[in-house]
Amino acid sequence: MTNKTEYETRYAVGQKEVKGYDTTELRDTFLVDKLMQPGKVYWVYSHYERFMVGSAVPTDSPLVLETLDPLKAEHFLDRRELGIINIGGNGTIVADGEEFALAREEALYLAKDNKSVTFYSDDPAQPAKFYLNSAPAHHAFKNKKVGRDEAKVLNLGSPETCNERTINQLMINSVVETCQLQMGLTRLKPGSVWNTMPAHQHDRRNEVYLYIDLDDGQAVSHFMGEPHETRHIFVHNEQAVLSPPWSIHCGVGTSNYAFIWGMAGENLDYGDMDSYPPDTLR
């Protein structure tokens, strides 16, 4: 069995620093653009809520979830929990001898204290693409798979405001018990391009957006920053943006798309957010 793991660290910055950033500095700080590398486990260790975002794409060989030096732990999940959503071909995850088969857009929650986690693809020619979010954990809940039909589904927005969308809440406290991690997948309807509108801010948690199902040549303009002083980052398929607690987040695409959101922080109240209608943004 072979394994390849890479990681990088992103330190937290505040509003005052970002006011002076140019495009390159903004992208280097908040854009995660090296996900879904075939045959690798890749992580970004963020100092916002100690949240980690990563991917595992097993091909000819399985991949092992290894601990990283910043964790100062014998096993990756000694003091962490892990959320996984598959956006590729069918795959399997084995956690401490327990097997979980994940089809596309199915999720798995792995609790604190799992010692051994291995990722497999059913077909290396169409590998699984496991998107990973991890947050510190204080309690060992139960591992749980969440299928597409087990998600809590919300239908929001309208064609008139170009934000008609379906929110699949895969990993919230009414679906699976977690310490602080929440994840889900939102898909915009054809003809709709605005996500999360009105824009909002989570002052008590961070959030990470992974944009998926964007065709070649298409992009999403992800808006961030303070409500009265916004910034934007152009994002392409299978790229993510770190959204700090002081920042708004919303986005508009050149076509419809989907995105995976992941959050961790002060509480598990999905509705804990401060909204900013379009006419209040600057």
Automatic annotation (TrEMBL):
Report the catalytic activity: 5-dehydro-4-deoxy-D-glucuronate = 3-deoxy-D-glycero-2,5-hexodiulosonate
Keywords tagged on the record: Isomerase, Metal-binding, Zinc
State its cofactor. Answer: Zn(2+)
Q: In which pathway does it act?
A: Glycan metabolism; pectin degradation; 2-dehydro-3-deoxy-D-gluconate from pectin: step 4/5
Q: Which domain of life is it from?
A: Bacteria
Output one GO MF annotation: 4-deoxy-L-threo-5-hexosulose-uronate ketol-isomerase activity
Q: What is its EC number?
A: 5.3.1.17
The record's section on InterPro entries has:
KduI (IPR007045), KduI/IolB_isomerase (IPR021120), KduI_N (IPR027449), RmlC-like_jellyroll (IPR014710), RmlC_Cupin_sf (IPR011051)
Decide whether keyword Zinc is in the record. yes
- Indicate the secretion signal residues: none
* PANTHER family recorded: 4-DEOXY-L-THREO-5-HEXOSULOSE-URONATE KETOL-ISOMERASE
Report the function annotation for this chain.
Answer: Catalyzes the isomerization of 5-dehydro-4-deoxy-D-glucuronate to 3-deoxy-D-glycero-2,5-hexodiulosonate.
Task: Please identify the protein, giving its name as recorded.
Answer: 4-deoxy-L-threo-5-hexosulose-uronate ketol-isomerase
Lineage of the species this protein comes from: Bacteria, Pseudomonadati, Pseudomonadota, Gammaproteobacteria, Alteromonadales
